[in-house]
Design brief:
heterodimer; A: mainly beta; seven-stranded mixed sheet; 11 strands; B: mainly beta; 56% strand
Chain lengths: 116, 113
């Protein structure tokens, strides 16, 4: 069964350093999402792509976070500089397309970030 | 403001009993609602979707209800098993575009043998 791949699974960094996370969605999925999940809370959407275009980044802290999906396939989320409050699980998800009857989102295993 | 509430306390039940989890929301009129399961250290896994014009949806031992008047969804697991122990997340589509989900904080279920 096809899965969403993420790497690394774990990342420890010091504050003010740069970190990057990678996501490879399920083949053929046009929509890709990055979520942040703080322990004890639900996932919060950071950015949504449709193919290579950003369709929602209203919750992305753009002063330090950036995301790209250059060829409309895999994606990278970057934080520079990292802050202590960025410690969380970063989840990538994909769905076939933005339309009725295609609402299921498939999540990857996540990247656990710890900022010291 | 828009809000989703799930029981923050863990639900502990005995194996074989029915687990019922609650999701309440305010200031929403979602077109659909989803339930996901999340195990520790893993990403959520989709379980069920129910639309605003549906009252109930079933899948094997799972049942979801959706009351748009009460603004509430109930998630039931019948004949629960220890393997059902996990955190269960409720998610609603939010205004501003299709497929945009807002998640509740989840309820942790523990099924004891």
């Amino acid at each position: 069964e096809a899965e969403v791949a993420q790497s690394p699974r774990y990342k420890i960094t010091e504050k003010s350093q740069a970190v990057a996370f990678w996501c490879d969605p399920i083949s053929g999925h046009a929509t890709l999402y990055w979520y942040r999940q703080i322990l004890g809370q639900g996932p919060e959407l950071l950015v949504q792509f449709q193919d290579e275009s950003v369709v929602d980044d209203s919750q992305l802290p753009k002063d330090r976070f950036s995301a790209e999906r250059l060829k409309g396939v895999d994606s990278t989320l970057k934080i520079q500089p990292a802050e202590l409050g960025d410690s969380a699980m970063y989840l990538c998800a994909s769905s076939l397309r933005v339309s009725e009857n295609q609402e299921t989102q498939y999540f990857g295993p996540g990247t656990r970030l710890l900022v010291l | 403001s828009q809000k989703i509430e799930q029981n923050s306390e863990a639900l502990n039940i005995q194996e074989g009993k029915t687990a019922t989890l609650t999701c309440n929301y305010t200031n929403y009129s979602p077109a659909y609602l989803q339930w996901y399961r999340q195990d520790p250290g893993r990403g959520p896994v989709f379980l069920l979707l129910i639309r605003e014009n549906e009252k109930e949806k079933r899948k094997e031992r799972l049942k979801v209800t959706f009351d748009t008047t009460l603004k509430q969804s109930l998630f039931h697991i019948t004949a629960s098993q220890p393997a059902d122990s996990a955190t269960y997340l409720c998610a609603l589509n939010r205004s501003g575009g299709y497929n945009k989900l807002i998640f509740g904080a989840g309820t942790r279920l523990a099924v004891h043998p």
